[in-house]
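Structure tokens please, single chain.
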Amino acid sequence: METVSKAHSESRALFYFERPRLNQLFTEAARYPLVVICAGAGYGKTSAVHDFVEEYQAATAWIQLSERDNVGARFWESYTHSLTQVNLPLAKATTKLGFPDTKEKLIHYQDILHNLVEMKKRIIVLDDFHCIEEPTVIRFVEECILQNMPPETSVFLISRSTPRINIAGMVYRDQIFNISENDLRFTESELVQYFHRMDISPNQESLREVMKDTEGWAFAISLIARSYRKAPGYGGYVRNAMKTNIFRLMETEIWDGITERLQNFLTRLSLIDHLSVDFIAKLAENEEGLIADLEKQSAYVRMDSYINAYLIHPLFLEFLRQKQEFLSEEQKRETYVIAGDWCNKNGFKMDAIFYYEKTGDYQSILLILAGLTTQIPQDIAKYAAEIFDRAPEEAFDKVAFLADMHLRTYICQGLLRKSLELVKHYEAKFLKLPDDNSVKKRTLTRLYICWTYIRCLMSVTDDIFDYDIYIEKACKCVHEEDSGKLDIYYPGAWINFAGSSRKGSPEEFIAAITRNQAHIQNSYMKGFMAGELELAKGELEFYRGDTSSAATHAALAVKQARAEKQFGLMHRALLYTCVLLPRRVILPLWNRR
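Here you go.
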């Protein structure tokens, strides 16, 4: 690795050019709570901020954003991982909290900041903020990062367009410092210094032509400087190519000058968003020579120590993406497999799901989603539902419980009509499979349990209590080895979902539960939802005011649920026992084994 580091240092020394004027400008900007750096691609926004924070030496969290951060969970993974660089306890606490998509979670997040953030100067950089359109992510940035940040914190928003955030109040209070394209353009003096730094001595006429043609655009100036090192002089081909097509100049000045092996490696990197140092080494199979060749392109590929990842210049990345057609399908697949496994192992679950879809690895996607709570967060559910909507039909025949997970993603979004259509589709599909199909009955069991839950929820509005029909079907399909692995179908605090004011509606709801339990007791599902019936009766008595009867039912529900390890129901029953029973009665029930 010593050779790699030396090559990187030499390459960086050759192309690196710090502009003191910009550092002074950013020093003044850092006195403000919000700094907006807004300019088009190739103006050196990221490089300028990076140079400044290295010199300024404040604790810096750098969040590199992309289009996929419009999923709240994915944004939160990026955000919390960046915090590990500056405040590990804060990173752990925010990871545990999850993306604050509710008012309560936003308040909890602010409390975490108050308790775990020290009073010292710090900078938070949100790079490529123009990629963000998701309202919940924008709201988090507005309410937490901008309006409720601790003192001595500056937020740097780097964007190609005006950020989609409500900052009218901050503008009124003079809390924003704006840096534009005009600020980032090379001045003629800086152009002379840059060329001198690279041992280039153009005549005065050529300097004027470069300034006129580029208007101080950093990326074009960098390319022109590279061409000078090969063939001194700005006139002729270089000037014409620069003016007509910047990608054509990249082809000549960068692409044609590197090995085919590096060309292939760079193109594979353009398939991936998160270029961690560890991931790069794994993809390169730890070949130091290939990594050294990569780092020689430091004008367009650099290692960022703040996020421990490589960054490719956006325009060069766009150029590389045009080369992806030359990769074989096997090369693409291998790249996505490595990326998916690395992201999954390192906590970037949303990225892992994205790459697993590219390879058709629905089993791995299923395992990630199964590791979440039964009530999948809505933004993740929406993201996953779109993936399953695109999945080929045969995937649901081969991967056990994939159809069940597809259905759950719609239920967790509250799309009950769509869920009902989907469960009917899958029932018809799986009933057509031969009986010896390994996933048929196991999948149908879970589909029918989901169907039970859908009908429970829909009974709130249609006043029809027929969900016992689907529990009966589940009982006929269930396999003995799955009997203890089924999820309960009540996620809330209440058991009785009856929403009608019609007299007798709550009793009809409980009558359906009674039929459910009769089916369950005569099948391999025996013990499933134990305590449900007693708890439903106790709950109804509680709201009718008969606390004595309610306490008896709730205590029995605790006992039955504990015996069959139905801990979700036991927890709900205990909520009532804590209200209804004195401590001298509760403690023996709780301690009894």
